[in-house]
Design a protein that fits this description.
Elements (H helix, E strand, L loop, with lengths): L3 H13 L9 H7 L17 H14 L13 H13 L2 H16 L8 E10 L7 E3 L4 E10 L5 E8 L4 H15 L5 E4 L6 H9 L3 E4 L15 H12 L12 H21 L1
Parallel strand pairs: 1-5, 5-6
Antiparallel strand pairs: 1-3, 2-3, 3-4
């Protein structure tokens, strides 16, 4: 949240950066450097600085530019994209994000693994997607982002589908992922769109308790609902990164990686500073 204290802290961080606000500081790189592939002892020595590759990827996601439009003070865009694909195959962005979630929770004085989660979805236009769907409620042709966050808004799970998939159907895949990656979660908060028989049956089978937070009857206009506002704030964090305002990616794995890069970068900066 942008407060006077956070603005002052970000101003101090910017003084450490040489070029762009998205560049990794020394403290941030120290946290994630051990996760990146080390240079091989055989063959040709590596000439590419992986820190600069990560800086270029973060710049691309934050500004929303194309690969070929990366500034020339980064490595060549072909090199950046090649390493980007390698990182996706290694699930490196997912790993960095999940570690950042646990570290940030511990820094806040909480257990590393959450016990409760909030589930919601967001439909976005996807002009480059091979498969798209129409969301009649939002009047959007594109993809739908089904996400689960902890009670502070940290992303725990994301599932991408075509926009015509219902919230409850997308949430069933979220439940499977939560049980594997965050086994201590027991309680889920959701809105009325998730109050469906198949979803409730599956939640009971996987030992989840879903609490439906409904709108206040008789109250018109916008009003903050308990628990549910947290996940809406996470969507706001995502769309501050211009590459995520729409889904510009053809592949689902690339689109998911962009989300982990954006939210992982926010957590990493909060942890290191």
């Amino acid at each position: 949240m942008w407060t006077v204290e956070s603005r002052g802290r970000m101003a101090k961080i910017r003084k450490k950066l040489k070029r762009y606000p998205t560049d990794l500081t020394d403290e941030e790189w120290e946290v994630i450097a051990p996760l990146f592939p080390q240079p091989s002892k055989r063959g040709r020595p590596r000439k590419t600085d992986l820190r600069e590759v990560v800086n270029a990827i973060r710049y691309l996601v934050r500004t929303g530019c194309g690969w070929e439009m990366l500034p020339t003070d980064f490595p060549p865009w072909q090199t950046v994209y090649w390493w980007f694909r390698q990182f996706i195959r290694r699930l490196l962005f997912n790993t960095i994000h999940d570690i950042a979630v646990m570290m940030d929770r511990e820094k806040a004085g909480r257990e590393a693994s959450p016990s409760a989660s909030v589930v919601d979805s967001q439909s976005v236009k996807a002009p480059s997607a091979k498969e798209r769907g129409f969301d009649p409620a939002k009047k959007i042709v594109g993809r739908k982002r089904h996400i689960a966050v902890d009670t502070d808004g940290r992303l725990l799970m994301v599932n991408l589908t075509t926009a015509d998939i219902s919230d409850s159907a997308g949430a069933q895949m979220i439940l499977d992922g939560l049980r594997k990656r965050w086994p201590w979660i027991k309680h889920l908060f959701a809105d009325g769109a998730y109050d469906r028989g198949k979803l409730m049956d599956k939640a009971q089978f996987l030992d989840f308790v879903i609490e439906v937070v409904r709108r206040i009857e008789g109250k018109e206009g916008f009003h903050v609902l308990p628990r549910r506002w947290v996940v809406e704030r996470t969507f706001g964090w995502m769309t501050r990164w211009r590459r995520l305002v729409r889904d510009y990616e053809q592949r689902l794995d690339v689109s998911e990686a962009m989300i982990h890069i954006a939210l992982g970068s926010l957590l990493l900066r909060r942890i290191a500073h």
